[in-house]
Amino acid sequence: MAEEKKEKKGFFRRLVSGLSKTRNSIVSGFDNALAAYTEVGDDFYEEIEEILIMGDVGVKATENIVEDLKAKVRDKRIGNPQQCRNLLMESIRDQMSVGKTEYEFEKRKSVVLVVGVNGVGKTTSIGKLAAMLKGQGRSVILAAADTFRAAAGEQLTEWASRAQVPIVSGQEGSDPGSIVYDAIASAKARNADVLIIDTAGRLHNKKNLMNELGKINRIIDREYPEAFRETLVVLDGTTGQNALSQAKEFQAVTPVSGIILTKLDGTAKGGIAAAIHSELGIPVKYIGVGEKLEDLQKFDADAFVKALFDTDPADE
User: Fold this and answer.
1) DSSP secondary structure string for all residues of 110-136
2) pLDDT tens digits, one per residue of 237-290
3) DSSP H/E element including 164
4) Element (H, E) at 23
5) Distance between CA atoms of 21 and 13, rounded to whole angstroms?
6) Residues near 239 by Cβ (< 8 Å), separated by ≥ 6?
7) Which among 19, 53, 121, 224 has the fewest CB atoms less than 10 Å away?
8) Residue 231 pairs with which residues in a beta bridge?
9) Is 5 exposed, middle or buried (0-12, 13-18, 19+ CB in 10 A)?
10) Residue 191 in 3-state DSSP?
11) Spatial separation of the C-alpha atoms in residues 139 and 133, rounded to whole Å
């Protein structure tokens, strides 16, 4: 228990460090606004709105945050902007909260389909997710169904080795469907808890992507109907609004149940976590702040906002 607490504390400090550029972009703007205005009024709210939008929080999430802040200010009859800091933290956090039921797949016999364009950290995230689930006592199998990208299978095999989980793969260019079929057979034979399937990150067009994912989904439906289904999209946090566009693209071709947001260390665009949740109604379930196995963690909106504002929970 003490070790787990220490690990969480270590991740929180890495998150604080990783969000430093976002903090400089958003929170320093807030603090300047709180200090510059003598009363809470339209000009103050407009300033907060502009800071959020410039920080890649997105228009819809920004509107929700500001409206929520206004309601809190009215309820508490606050007139001094300096008293709005904690209320602002609460309003941002409420836009990103993830329910406990969102991690149902971790507890059941599941198939997790992982999608995402090349270069976002998809293979790395799968390896880290496998290690996390194994650490929870779950038995995991990986399926290397991204056969279009050179060396994708080798990279996933390396991560499988690091996470110490088995992998089912095939030759580069082979049929992804047949690999998924074999992986399901292996998962059943081993009585595995979770099968994680890596899919192609780049195909010639959206129709190809839809056909490929459709085929994989049909195989899973036919061969493993009893499995709980989860589809996670991996997005690169450094790309800001681009990440939002990618999520929309994948949402158009397959049911998406969650987001893995990577590379939050060293980006000024961490506000995209709020935008994704608000614009698409898809929760950010995991975030990555580094290259180590333990640098992927469940998304905790409270910890995220405290790290963003550099408010250490231990200090409270």
Assistant:
1) EEEEEE--TTSSHHHHHHHHHHHHHHT
2) 888 788 888 888 888 888 899 999 988 776 667 778 888 888 888 899 999 877
3) none
4) helix 20-25
5) 14
6) 246, 269
7) 53
8) 113
9) exposed
10) coil
11) 8
Q: How far apart are CA 195 and CA 296, in angstroms?
A: 18
> Under a CB-based contact definition with an 8 Å cutoff, are residues 44 and 257 in contact?
no
Percent of the chain with pLDDT over 70: 92
DSSP assignments along 39-63, one per residue: S-SHHHHHHHHHHHHHTT--HHHHH
> CA–CA separation, 166 vs 28, rounded Å?
46
3 state DSSP class of 102: helix
The two structure tokens encoding residue 148: 């279009």
Residue (of 10, 1, 5) closest to 294 by Cα position: 10
Provide the 10 A C-beta neighbour count for residue 39: 9
Closest CA to 197 of 236, 143, 257: 143
Only one residue has tokens 């400089």, namely: 24
pLDDT digits (tens, 9 = 90+) for 62-86: 999 999 999 999 999 888 888 888 8
- Residue whose structure tokens are 């049909």: 218
Pairing of strands 258-262, 194-198: unpaired
- 């195909």: which residue's tokens? 203
Of residues 121, 119, 166, the one with CA closest to residue 262? 121
Q: How far apart are CA 108 and CA 229, in angstroms?
A: 10
CA atoms within 13 A on the CB side of 157: 9
pLDDT at residue number 26? 83
Residue 172 has pLDDT above 80, yes or no: no
